[in-house]
Design a protein that fits this description.
4-stranded mixed beta sheet, 2 domains, 26% helix, elongated, disordered N terminus, 6 helices, 14 strands, alpha+beta
């Protein structure tokens, strides 16, 4: 009897031992820390075995690694020594990281790489799906004065350092209001853009710029600011300033304003639904009827046939 019990205990010990080994194997290399290469032309990942800390502590751990020298002598520390991480905080799916003012002194071609490395490192945790940078509490502005907004891993082209400031051309299908404001009119537009801008941001900037086709009207007020735009699991989250809601053209129907944005964004590969927020809030309605909290899919009902 005792022999059987002893064998059972030894078997359990072996099982737990094997399970423990498997867990350790899964944890090893679970995360990647992104660093800059020596000539600052691209970012390179190093595997990192975390301490297994809870999510908030894990973010702190990863930020510490980004502020430390990498193991490889062929790589550079991601966050320069003179740039301080003041704080970080989570708000929903957003992780806000606040830096000292020295961040703004970074050269543009180096800053985009550092930004990509930080974001790609931090979004690996379940603590954050989107990352936004602030400088002493103020939203980060790009060197051309535009708002950077929230970012995710796909916000950056692969090996972005090789394509800094390069320009490519694409064709967009945008939807604006007809002259009566009751239907959508498709406008096909060839656009030159920087490879460091996401396609979702490009679409929204073109909608804000307004139509070029005669007999059509803008659907987004010209004073509207694009605070952020990002895609997570096929949903495009568009965060606009309150000018979008307060300064709408009453001649354009509410549904035309909504589906001008939704249909334009869902033309992009990987976007199936759209949610619009005003200054980060999804409370209330777009104007009268359409709830901001809802996710909206493509709707062809309002498109005017050529």
């Amino acid at each position: 009897m005792w022999k059987k019990i002893l064998c059972f205990i030894l078997s359990l010990t072996m099982i737990f031992s094997i399970t423990g080994c498997n867990r350790e194997e899964k944890k090893k290399g679970e995360y990647q820390i992104y660093y800059l290469n020596m000539d600052r032309s691209k970012i390179v990942a190093e595997e990192y075995d975390s301490t297994g800390a809870e999510e908030e502590k894990l973010v702190e751990e990863l930020l510490t690694k980004l502020q430390s020298a990498p193991d490889s002598s062929k790589l550079r520390q991601t966050i320069p020594a003179d740039v301080k991480v003041n704080s970080f905080k989570q708000n929903g799916s957003y992780l806000y990281v606040d830096f000292s003012e020295e961040y703004m002194a970074l050269k543009p071609e180096e800053e985009i790489l550092i930004r990509a490395a930080i974001v790609k490192t931090l979004v690996q945790t379940s603590y954050s799906a989107l990352v936004a940078f602030t400088i002493n509490g103020e939203p980060l502005l790009a060197h051309d004065g535009t708002l950077v907004g929230s970012m995710h891993a796909d916000s950056f082209v692969e090996n972005p350092g090789k394509q800094i400031n390069s320009s490519v051309e694409t064709t967009l299908n945008l939807y604006f209001a007809n002259k009566d404001g009751t239907k959508l009119v498709k406008e096909t537009r060839d656009v030159h853009y920087s490879t460091n801008i996401s396609m979702e941001k490009l679409v929204m900037e073109q909608l804000i710029e307004g139509p070029k086709k005669s007999g059509t009207m803008a659907t987004v007020p010209s004073g509207t600011k694009l605070i952020s735009v990002s895609v997570v699991d096929g949903v495009c989250y568009v965060n606009l300033s309150d000018s979008f809601k307060n300064n709408q053209n009453a001649e354009v129907n509410e549904e035309i304003v909504l589906y001008s944005i939704v249909n334009s964004l869902t033309e992009l590969q990987g976007v199936t639904k759209v949610q619009i927020s005003i200054n980060g809030s999804t409370d209330g309605t777009l104007r009268y009827s359409y709830d901001l909290a809802k996710l909206y899919e493509r709707n062809l009902e309002y498109i005017k046939e050529d």
